[in-house]
Design goal:
The protein has helices at 5-15, 51-54, 63-74, 123-126, 141-150, 156-174, 225-228, 242-248, 270-282, 306-317, 337-350, 368-376, 389-400, and strands spanning 22-25, 40-44, 57-60, 86-90, 96-104, 111-116, 131-134, 177-187, 193-195, 198-202, 257-258, 263-267, 287-292, 325-332, 359-365, 383-386. It is of the alpha+beta class. It folds into 3 domains: 21-90, Dna Ligase, domain 1 (2-Layer Sandwich), CATH 3.30.1490; 96-203, D-amino Acid Aminotransferase, Chain A, domain 1; 238-400, 3-Layer(aba) Sandwich (Rossmann fold). Bound molecules: guanosine-5'-diphosphate and manganese (II) ion (MN). One of its GO terms (molecular function) is metal ion binding.
């Protein structure tokens, strides 16, 4: 369960991570009783990332500017979600923007410290340069220092940044978090650090242990997104929004490809994705969108599994334009086909309305036969589970060209 930025910052304050003076804004007229001096920054409080690029972060020099900016932000959906509140915050002039996070490594089940000298909105482009330090024993400040040094920091910044990492780690343990992220951690010319943005995800299984966390009363976590999600047509997907779309699902490393056709493609792993695109092309199919869910070995933010990415990928692809069918060409490995099939089944059951676009699934690898049976047993008219890739290609292409869903 995610916290909103202002809720994350309340936690930061508890452990002494520096934040700017701020005030929650429930209505533009609240700005007339603002307790922080201008200039300020107004920020949309939604769960999606990429608010800066989407226009959800605006600066204001006076009350008139601020009211107008607040009105604009309240009416600006970010990936379909309207903010219920805004955060007004003192403006800060950063010299440098760093990225810091503590996550649970999904395969090793150990905390992992992450950091990059190029944070802020530049992070997406540089996400490959994120330094990682695995906390493989009892935590000590040494781990935090090593991260700061690996990030290429020098002088007093090593101390100030590692002190922040230690505090993030304390939050991570105390509240059973899956993720605590600061992006950006701003550094001003005097070398002082300030958390300008914060992201906190609480482990769902541990929620009951932390009744003091604001999640229970929050206006809806990620799970409630469907309540705010617009119908397909309002999400204008074009090549220019592909980065935004991926970052909204907190998957900065996933790069969707968009094409002019009507067949959606989801695969796991770069090789399989490219091969599938080639096969679709050779068979005369016209892709509309293609997403590589990633291999299992490469590390992604926030910690997740192939199954998580599959559910997010389905969510994303089903909102793309012109879509008439989706081909899922997936290979089970460490995450077996059973688990993958379970994720597909769970996704389909969670939808408020039955999925209206036919899904053609081809599963290969560990336990594929049992997984196919599991999906076939769902007996859904929009779900086609085929044994061979050839059959799946033929079916998915025919459906994308308008063939009926009859079997
Ligand atoms: P995100 O795009 O959803 O991650 O939203 P952020 O809160 O990270 O804001 C986006 C960008 O706005 C940051 O990377 C900063 O460059 C900038 N920003 C946010 N808050 C401030 C602030 O108080 N002062 C200044 N100068 N820039 C800010
Ligand atoms: Mn940010």
């Amino acid at each position: 369960m995610d916290l909103l930025e202002y809720q994350a910052k309340d936690l930061f304050q508890k452990v002494g991570i520096p934040i700017l003076p701020s005030q929650r804004i429930d209505h533009p007229k609240d700005l007339k009783q603002l307790r922080i001096p201008y200039p300020i920054v107004l920020k949309s409080q939604v769960y999606a990332g990429g608010r800066g690029k989407a226009g959800g972060v605006r600066f204001a020099e006076n009350t008139i500017d601020a009211v107008a900016a607040a009105q604009a932000i309240f009416y600006l959906p970010i990936l379909g979600q309207y903010p219920e509140v805004l955060l007004a915050e003192a403006k800060y002039e950063p010299d440098q923007e760093l990225y810091l996070a503590v996550v649970l490594d999904p395969s090793l089940r150990r905390p992992l410290l992450l950091g990059s000298r190029e944070g802020g909105m530049a992070l997406e482009a540089t996400s490959r340069q994120i330094q990682q330090v695995l906390v493989d024993g009892e935590f000590s400040p040494f781990y935090a220092r090593r991260l700061a040094i690996n990030m290429g920091l020098s002088g007093g910044l090593i101390e100030s940044v590692s002190a922040i990492v230690e505090k993030m780690y304390r939050l991570f343990l105390t509240y059973d978090l899956d993720l605590v992220e600061i992006n950006p951690l701003a550094v001003n010319p005097a070398g002082e650090v300030m958390a300008l943005d914060g992201k906190v995800a609480v482990n769902d299984a541990a929620l009951e242990r932390h009744p003091d966390l604001p999640v229970m009363q929050s206006v809806g976590g990620r799970r409630d997104h469907s309540a705010h999600r617009p119908s397909h047509s309002t999400l204008a997907m074009g090549p220019t929004c592909s980065g935004l779309a991926a970052s909204a699902f907190d998957l900065p490393n996933l790069n969707p490809m968009l094409f002019p056709g009507s067949l959606g493609i989801l695969c796991n792993g770069a090789g399989l994705t490219m091969a599938t695109l080639d096969l679709v092309d050779r068979a005369g199919g016209q892709p509309s969108a293609c997403l590589n869910l990633g291999g299992e070995s490469s590390y992604r933010l926030p910690p997740d599994t192939l199954c998580d990415r599959l559910e997010k990928g389905l969510d994303w692809i089903l909102q793309t334009q012109r879509l008439r069918s989706v081909l899922l060409n997936l290979l089970g490995g460490a995450e077996t086909c059973n688990a993958v099939a379970g994720a597909i089944a769970r996704y389909l059951k969670q939808q408020r309305q039955p999925v209206s676009v036919p899904l053609v699934v081809r599963l290969g690898g560990a336990h594929a036969a049992a997984a196919r049976e599991q999906l076939a047993a769902l007996d859904l008219s929009m779900l086609f589970v085929l044994d061979s890739l050839d059959e799946a290609l033929t079916k998915a292409i025919a459906l994308s060209e308008g063939a009926g869903v009859g079997r």
